[in-house]
Amino acid sequence: MAEAATARRSRITPEREAELYGAVLDLLREVGYDALTMDAVAARTRSSKATLYRQWGGKAELVVKAIRHNKPGKIADIDTGSIRGDLHCLLTREDDCTMEQNSALMRGVAMALHRNPDLRQAFRGQLIEPEMAEFRRVLQRAVDRMEIRPDCPALDFLVHMMVGGFATTVLLDEQPPTRAFLASYIDAVILPALGVSAS
Q: Residue 55 in contact with residue 9, Cβ under 8 Å?
């Protein structure tokens, strides 16, 4: 029976899967997580709701997989030879337009994370924990290069600092951050906290 279920799930082509994920992200930006329904996804993508449930199990899993599919590669694959280079290279993966779209996505799920344990669990398991593990690998390389002291207290807070720079711009300035702003933030805030020169 498990083999039959796997066979059913594998019928969606990568192209069709990408199309479905794109539609989910568009709906998420338009209406937010709470108002997004499997009926709306089915209508937008000309799919049957039964197919969506069979493939993804529910809304939380579908939304998180769509967000993960939208990610531009693994953070740990970035290796420029310096922590400053790695963090700045991370910014080049998205232009200002993409950052604006991602801000709309985060607004679409931020409040819903507090109200929906299934979304929170999927988000943490499939996005937060894997990305934190990748950030730790980037930082460990910097420690191995002796750029950062292994006992630097800011090491445990890099992800919080990165997310904070992104989120507070949206909250306080009511607009998404730009690459120029985040580059300055890395040099002025994150690197000094890690004990690294921005020059």
A: yes
What's the predicted TM-score (pTM) here? Answer: 0.77
Record: fold of 2-67: Tetracycline Repressor; domain 2 (1.10.357)
Tens of pLDDT, residues 68-127: 888 877 888 899 999 999 999 988 887 777 777 777 777 768 778 888 999 999 999 998
Amino acid found at 92: T
Q: Are 70 and 25 in contact (CB under 8 A)?
A: yes
pLDDT at residue 174 in the model: 67
> Whole-angstrom Cα distance, residue 54 to residue 7?
11
Taking CA atoms, 53 is separated from 58, 60, 95, 118, in Å, by 6, 11, 34, 15
- Per CATH, the number for 72-193 is 1.10.357.10
What whole-number distance in Å separates Cα of residue 21 and Cα of residue 26?
9
Identify the residue whose tokens are 């679409």: 108
Q: Please, which residues have CB within 8 angstroms of residue 50's CB and are 6 or more apart in sequence?
A: none
DSSP 154-177: GGGGHHHHHHHHHHHHHHHHSSPP
The residue type of 30 is E
- Tell whether the torsion through CA atoms of 150, 151, 154 and 156 is positive or negative: positive
Where does CATH 1.10.357.10 sit in the chain? 2-67, 72-193
State the Cα angle at 88 between 192 and 162, rounded to 5°. 60
Strands in 44-119 per DSSP E:
none
